[in-house]
Amino acid sequence: MKKKKQRIKRKKVEEKKELIQLTDLQWRIVVAVEAAVLCILNFVRLFDNSFWGDEGFSIRLMKLGLGAMIKATAEDVHPPFYYMFAKIIYGLFGSHGWVFHLTAFIPYVLILIFSCTLIYNSFGKETAFLFNILASLLDHSKTYIMEVRMYELGALLMLISAYAFLCIMEDKESKKNYVIFVIASLGAAYTHYYCVISVAVFYLALIFLAVRKKLSWKKVILVCLITVIGYMPWFMTMLQTARQVTNDFWLKSAPRFLGSILYLFSADKLFYSFFMFVTTLVLSAAAFIRSKDNFRLLPLLLSSLVTIAFGLIISAVYRPVYLLRYLYPSAIVFCLALCIAVSKTKRKMEYTIILSAITLMVCIPAYINTVKTEKYKDLRCTEACQKVKENIHPGDVVLTNNTFIGWTIFEYYFPDLTCISDVSAGYSDFEEGKNYYLMWKNDISDDEKNWLSGYGFQPEKIMENGSVGETDFQLYRLNKQVQ
Q: Beta strand pairing status for 436-440 and 397-400?
């Protein structure tokens, strides 16, 4: 109680020294308006219909029955929670491009709401204001706010887990904080496997604090036990398929350490990413020196750094199974750590303004380029789909040597047409009476012309540099040669 009174008194003194004099209600309006503007900036990107291969896989799973969906995601070594969430959205709104984007956009909106309410209440206006910008405009944020994958949902659940962890540190007796922590961390673990590593850092921190007699052993053991039991069903499923899938994993090399830490504040200006990373470490260290209570930020920083270390080590020792995008959910927590560290400084408003201004100067031009690029891709995709549908009809057969088109893209854009994937020179299963077309990566080579000629076909290019699902192709009609 005494600490709370001191904190309130210190807050009042700091408010008198603030650079911008506004009431708490006025600041809440400012932060809410900021969040609304950022949300609108990303909302306008919702209405495109251009998806790449992995997004096509997500869309395919949404359309499956629940049992088939869980089996399919287990065989691909992905936890099922995102696909369950996405299936609900698909069931409510139907099969439209913007609906699929909603599966990522809704978690983003919830992140902003979370920031404007609970984060604001706990850490102040500066934390919420800066965090809204980082969660909306950094390169990785822009990508996963729209991408039909699990990363934005993972970021939301990681954020809630980190916040619940901090609440446990603040109020060690509240059962509610432990319950929220377990639910959110389990949700994150059921969303992406690398989130398991990220949330494990919080559990290790709880165990460490219990050893130091800062927390109740009984509560910590119960939290760990419930989490292990809750994850065990999927863990067993994962073990059954992990070895086979990882042995077939397509990745040939893993990212480097420098690239990983720069990704935490992903931007097209590397100096900015490095500056923000160093700033996070410096301000966090300053916060630690200022008060021992600020050591609770350390697990938030380690959550990302341990995830990076795990990905790099397992990729070096076993085989490459680590991509930068796997880091995104924990990167959001790293961004939160920076924002909280800023709020612990004496000149928090000044630092907030400076870091926000620098971020906007770097990210707004990149945002404009992203919008232009997405519109261009969507236009090309629409034109290509129209051209394909004008020329190819049900009963015709399309052959492709493009992995993404054959894997998931074709079935999304042309569900009524037949596609045979992974075709190369030497394919021989041509049927009489069928019309054949090629969706080829590049122009047909002389060897490929000879292969087709051997089966009596003369290729005629009917579309050059088409694009569906962000994948380019050349479209050929195979005409029968005149004898």
A: parallel
pLDDT for 34 equals: 98
Pick from 393, 405, 481, 416: nearest CA to 439: 405
Given a contact cutoff of 8 angstroms between Cβ atoms, the answer to whether 300 and 333 are in contact is yes
Please enumerate in sequence order all residues whose Cβ is within 8 A of that of 178, keeping only pairs 6 or more positions apart, or say none: 164, 168, 219, 222, 223
CA distance 169 to 381: 50
Dist. CA 200–CA 186, nearest whole Å = 10
Phi first, then psi: what are they for 341, rounded to 5°? -60, -40
- Distances from the Cα of 54 to the Cα of 58, 227, 254, 352, 405, angstroms: 6, 29, 19, 37, 11
Instruction: Please work out, in degrees rounded to the nearest 5, the angle formed at the alpha carbon of residue 240 by the alpha carbons of 235 and 242.
Output: 80
Residue that has been written with the tokens 């990363």 in this structure: 151
Residue 325 DSSP class: G
d(CA 398, CA 417): 8
What pLDDT digit, counting tens, does each position of 188-218 carry? 999 999 999 999 999 999 999 999 888 889 9
Task: Give the distance between the most distant pair of CA atoms in the chain.
Answer: 98
CB atoms within 10 A of CB 306: 17
Tell me the two tokens of residue 128: 């919420």
pTM of the full predicted structure? 0.92
270-290 helix and 348-391 helix, angle to the nearest 10 degrees: 140
Domain boundaries defined on the chain: 7-376, 392-480
